[in-house]
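Below is how a single chain appears once it has passed through the pipeline. First comes the sequence as given, then the structure the pipeline wrote out for it. We keep one example in the README because the format questions we get most often are answered faster by looking than by reading.
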Amino acid sequence: MVTHIVMFTFAEENKESNIARAKEMLEALMGAVPTLRSMEVGVNFSGEARAMDLSIITTFDDREGLDAYAVHPVHLEVVAFIKSVVEYSKVVDYEG
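Resulting structure:
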């Protein structure tokens, strides 16, 4: 199994509504991307300076499944929106 984790820090403009929209769009990927086995989307509540705003934890059967997800048209629509409203993101991919 492959786990793909991404954490996002959103720009301040329309932050709350953009986080809500991103969460909704990300959750809609379940069932739309065949290789996506599970997805958890979390909105941060921590006030720590090092905290990020939103995270996703996704799983795939293998690296090929993750690769297929990365280029899936529905996923690319979500990526385009998120890139337009975030300041930065961090990613971790691992097998286990």
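Residues 15-27 form the longest helix (13 residues).

See the next section for the split statistics.
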